[in-house]
């Protein structure tokens, strides 16, 4: 999946840096670089913009003001030299908040989170043909309905699939990454290197954990903002 992105920044050196970073990431497609929000408006009328790398403090219109004017909001990563806007940025459901000058590894972490979030949003608009999957387990093939899955636990060489009404999980040699790619992104989300959860089964989300009924699972920082953004769409 290609992610169409815009850079909006009034500093030429920042535009150059972010454009260089984008060209190094195969799944990113740079639609345009804009020296301010006003110049960016036409692209939202003629293109499907998935991701915006957005400065905050700019002449005429700030990044946060610009974002509030959009009817259909893309995923946003704020890129700014001012850390005092971080709280406001996350209140606008930003995927991440990067401080200039941005190192490439920090940029990659942010756009990877954005990719997961955009994949989820696009999956919502696609009609799903199936509501189940088949797994190989204990010398047989087992059918499992998505609605029965509580969470998946990835271990070194196999995955445990924990069901709502079963104390004993199914065990399969298929990897957690396999299920991350296979399961519908509007119903399941990865919250940790070892866990994928069913969004429908989430009861409580805290800063470091997710509660599914009586089961508490850790939520790592790498995946937390994507989870918060998805939940924010449902508020």
Give short descriptive properties of this protein.
single chain; 5-stranded parallel beta sheet; 235 residues; OB fold (Dihydrolipoamide Acetyltransferase, E2P); 32% helix; 2 domains; 15 strands; Rossmann fold; 5-stranded antiparallel beta sheet; alpha/beta; LytTR_DNA-bd_dom
> SSE string, helix = H, strand = E?
EHEHEHEHEHEEEEEHEEEEEH
Oligomer: single chain
Q: According to CATH, what is the topology of the largest domain? A: Rossmann fold
CATH second-level architecture of the largest domain: 3-Layer(aba) Sandwich
Low-confidence stretches: none
Proportion of residues in helical segments:
25-40%
pLDDT average, as an integer? Answer: 89
Q: How many E strands? A: 15
Write the layout of secondary structure elements.
Layout: E1 3-8, H1 12-23, E2 28-34, H2 37-46, E3 51-54, H3 63-69, E4 75-80, H4 86-91, E5 96-99, H5 104-124, E6 132-137, E7 140-145, E8 149-154, E9 159-163, E10 170-172, H6 176-182, E11 188-192, E12 195-198, E13 204-205, E14 209-212, E15 215-218, H7 221-233
Parallel strand pairs: 1-2, 1-3, 3-4, 4-5
Antiparallel strand pairs: 6-7, 8-9, 8-12, 9-10, 11-12, 13-14, 14-15
Could you explain the architecture of this structure?
- A five-stranded parallel β-sheet has the order 2-1-3-4-5. A five-stranded antiparallel β-sheet has the order 10-9-8-12-11. A three-stranded antiparallel β-sheet has the order 13-14-15, with no helix packed on it.
- The protein folds into two domains: about 5-125, Rossmann fold, CATH 3.40.50; about 130-235, Beta Barrel (OB fold (Dihydrolipoamide Acetyltransferase, E2P)).
- It contains seven helices and 15 strands.
- The protein has helices spanning about 10-25, 35-45, 65-70, 85-90, 105-125, 175-180, 220-235, and strands spanning about 5-10, 30-35, 50-55, 75-80, 95-100, 130-135, 140-145, 150-155, 160-165, 170, 190, 195-200, 205, 210, 215-220.
- α5 (about 105-125) packs parallel to α7.
- By secondary structure, the protein is an alpha/beta fold.
- α1 (about 10-25) links the parallel β1 and β2.
């Amino acid at each position: 999946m290609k992610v169409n992105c815009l850079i909006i920044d009034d500093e030429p050196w920042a535009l150059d840096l972010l454009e260089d970073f984008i060209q190094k990431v195969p799944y990113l497609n740079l639609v345009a670089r804009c020296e301010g929000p006003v110049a960016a408006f036409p692209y939202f009328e003629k293109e499907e913009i998935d991701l915006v790398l957005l400065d905050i403090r700019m002449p005429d219109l700030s990044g946060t003001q610009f974002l509030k004017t959009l009817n259909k909001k893309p995923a946003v990563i704020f890129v700014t030299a001012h850390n005092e806007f971080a709280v406001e940025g996350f209140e606008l459901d930003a995927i991440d908040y990067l401080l200039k000058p941005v190192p490439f590894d920090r940029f990659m972490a942010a756009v990877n989170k954005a990719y997961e979030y955009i994949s989820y949003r696009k999956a919502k608009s696609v009609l799903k043909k199936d509501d189940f999957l088949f797994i190989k387990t204990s010398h047989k093939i087992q059918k499992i309905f998505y609605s029965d899955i509580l969470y998946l636990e990835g271990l070194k060489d196999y995955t445990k699939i924990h069901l709502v009404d079963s104390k004993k999980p199914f065990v399969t040699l298929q990897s957690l990454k396999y299920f991350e790619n296979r399961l519908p992104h509007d119903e399941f989300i990865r919250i940790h290197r070892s866990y994928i959860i069913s969004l429908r089964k989430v009861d409580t989300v805290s800063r470091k954990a997710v509660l599914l009924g009586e089961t508490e699972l850790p939520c790592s920082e790498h995946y937390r903002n994507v989870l918060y953004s998805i939940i924010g769409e449902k508020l």
